[in-house]
Amino acid sequence: MPRRTDISSILLIGSGPIVIGQACEFDYSGTQACRVLKEEGYRVILVNSNPATIMTDPDFADATYIEPLRLDVLTRVIEQERPDALLPTLGGQTALNLAMELVEAGVLDKYGVELIGARSEAIATAEDRHLFKEAMLEIGLQVPASGIAHSLEEAQEVVKDLGLPVIIRPAYILGGKGTGMAATIEEFDKAAQNGLDASPITEILIEQSIAGWKEFELEVMRDQDDNCVVVCSIENFDPMGVHTGDSITVAPAQTLTDIEYQEMRDASFACLRRVGVETGGSNVQFAVNPKNGDQVVIEMNPRVSRSSALASKATGFPIAKIAARLAVGYTLDEIPNDITKKTPAAFEPTIDYVVTKIPRWAFEKFPGAEGILGTSMQSVGEVMAIGRTFTESLQKGLRSLENGRLGLNADPAEKSLNEMNDKDLRAAAKIATPDRIYQVEALFRRGFTVDEIHSDTSIDPWFLDQILAITEERSYLENENLDTLDKRSWKRAKQLGFSDAQLAYLWKTQESLVREKREDLGIIPTYKTVDTCGAEFEADTPYHYSTWEDENEVQPSDRPKIMILGSGPNRIGQGIEFDYCCVHASFALRSAGYETIMVNCNPETVSTDYDTSDRLYFEPLTHEDVSHVIDVEKPERIIVSLGGQTPLKLASVLPEELIAGTSPRSIDIAEDRELWNDLCRSIDINQPPGGTAVNLDEARKIADDVGFPVLIRPSYVLGGRAMEIVYDHSQLEKAMAELLQFGSLGIEGGLSAERPVLVDRFLEEAIEVDVDAIRDSTGDAVIGAVMEHVEEAGIHSGDSACVIPPPHLSKEVIAQIEEFTLQIAEALDVKGLINVQFAVKEDQIYVIEANPRASRTVPFVAKATGVPLAKIASRVMVGATLSELREEKLLVPPVSGDHVAVKEAVLPFNRFPEADPVLGPEMRSTGEVMGIDLTTGLAFAKSQISAGGALPESGTVFMSLADRDKETGLEAARSLSDLGLEIVATKGTAEYLEKNGIVIKEIVAKLDEEGTDAVELIRSGSVQLVVNSPHGRGPRADGDHIRGAAGAEDIPLLTTASAALAAAKGLHEWKNSSLEVRTLQTYHQGVKTEKQHEE
Q1: pTM for the model
Q2: Euclidean distance between CA atoms 847 and 706, whole angstroms
Q3: CA gap 34, 86 in Å, rounded
């Protein structure tokens, strides 16, 4: 059937901020859907709170609402826009749950909005654990023995029948939130309660544990004529018991027999039909008993999922694009395959290579987090690698992770494994952790067998045998050297995935010498094409991966080429904002007539979509892999400064004449403390006093000279990695000891003169300010925006809320900050973007640091001001001037309106209950949201709702403040009690507030005193908001427990008095105004406050 003509406008709900369990794979699917539906001629209305995604750019939808994803807000949008249909299957669990809320609230019926893509009954059948179990049994599919409970008492009855161990699965959740395993009654009671709390409908499925079985997923699609296809089969390397988002996964499935696969294929189609998914993509998960081949269905997602992004990139079959077309009436046989142009989407993809996905974790950011993998997802990103064999793609994937590893061991980081004895190493490998795969390889080197390791880990013997092949090759290589290895053996080592850097480690030589020797022997990679059809048909799309064969499939081209290096895996400190910049660069440069080449290894993002750039290389971002692509493509310029620290680290090793924009030398000046200090002195800008240290004595001397508190941090890092504020000598000693052990610095050989520690006086109670600007090669420059942080200096800028325009800075101070920014850009000879951070204390301006690259605020600034900074910067980097771009109308003046935009960070502490949720100089947020309205208060209130910390409009606020915060805290308390909220506080805070006229309902005991303490009060449910700022000196234990309790009870928590004050003002305005929603397109035309009153 052709497209539907009875609907003309479609509402899409985005997935909101990036959180653990729901990352930018939905940015990718939603962006695809917006593009396709607009091409088909529909009016697209998008609601999403995330400013960092391409999807919320004003070009992708006709009406873009950057608003909180909440029932009242969506109802207001529907009332205003009157869409004909709602497509809820492309915004992850968030969109699905909101669609169900809209159905249940009667909003869709009231305004005549049709749910397309999945009916509400189908969503309920798949998401409600009880309905799903019944449905599967009805069609003869096996499910694990289980029972349903809605309370702890019911759960205890169920477990009596089932027996232990069990697994607990809540209904309507994402990323396995609230799932858990229990082998004892104590564990069970805790896990069952967690599950009930996590489920929005307080429902859990208690299932007999099948931990240790093999886990598989099938990515399937169905159209309205009941045509079904399997897009991709995926097998988990880890057995059941590790969430699939935390498991290494492999496509296609490697260990199923053809009969088992056909059985699974039939079962997935039967599941799709019974659940009632009429059109679109779904993901069905199975477990297989390795002893007898029994199959059970675990669950299905009636929507595009994390695995859909992986399956799309693994096969070249664009699931989200096709799902959007199916939702508006097309059938699979009517939709052409983009890549072959000759086959329809009804052809199942076949692949003649192996794809491996490896998760990226961030446990180092959460001291106290256990780092053990289980049924609840904890990874923050992932990489994907393509090779001709599993071993090749596994080693490529491991070196893509940006965690200092060069592959499967054979690198300096294996030292810690070599130091463990057999017994400890074997015991460690029994537990699922991010390091398990490295431990398994180390056990093989010590002579353990496949059978022994299989019985310890339940990892399938086929995968273990593949790892053993890598170990055996390594032991062969260790007995050879650079001069003795013959051509055939070189090729075999490369086909098993060994990098030049691993070979250099094994032979104790330099990587450059290994490369030179290999190339002399003519061992160079060839590039193959991802074509969806195993080369049965010709493929038009240049989507490539490297391998070590004889035939190269890269087509020559004579257009001027620009290569863009992407940002690698999502992780804390380097998120989707950088992917946004890379995609913008590709769009802008393609429009300007360049051929763009994208190199990246992240399957979740828009940059690795095969039609974002002219050519896509799915490759690790290492010196070796990038150099190979340069050799084959011969680009005129390479853009390294838009993808965050990952490509920037390569700037110094790639040919300098190819680096586009700011020179590597300037990047070094900004990073090298001595050179940077000289630059600041030469243009007469204040800096906080400080110095550099390579050992504790030097650090002590600097701290004594400048006075405590001091901020200490390693140089050359991103996301405030390992930064700390210390208040005395004992804290300094501890912090320096930690730095010597610290993650990748430890791996790379610790501190050195090249990588010293920076020790600076910490400016307490200063306002932190961020500025983004662009300068061209003629010296012309433009300020993107000046942003004022809500939290005071000392909170990492990525974790602090920030506001455009600055609410508390005078015109003079802003003008001076802009002037300083332009002077720094001039002194560094910047050609492209620069971000400068300042601290303002009593109108004195101090510069903290400058980064001559894209910063994470670029997308937010572009949405707030209407100026596409990343597009402008990418053109400037390849030689265009700002005046030419003004003529082209690419560079436009910022919007002149009265709106205020607030960016707020979204923190993942609910996934790491053991970590203290206090903010500091080390970045911990996974994503961000934006609030936009006509006053600072309303914009801030919207940002809090979007970030999941909606502020209470009644009830009780608990306050416990450090002395330095009491003055600001008093103002916040006054504002909160004016709103009718009651205040309880700890003794010191209560005395101060009472002395200043605030009524205190109750004085709360300290944790070791008699009486009700804060933790008990929070747990009892009688507190609706916690304001607790950590006390700088002395024990922070009380605060840790209070903040931990607030996190566990899901109560909004503010850890700075300035945030409490902003929240109180926001709440005040929120209560006294009617809810207004406006599109980004409207804000970009300029909205004035007077107009609001006339209406």
Answers
A1: 0.92
A2: 17
A3: 13
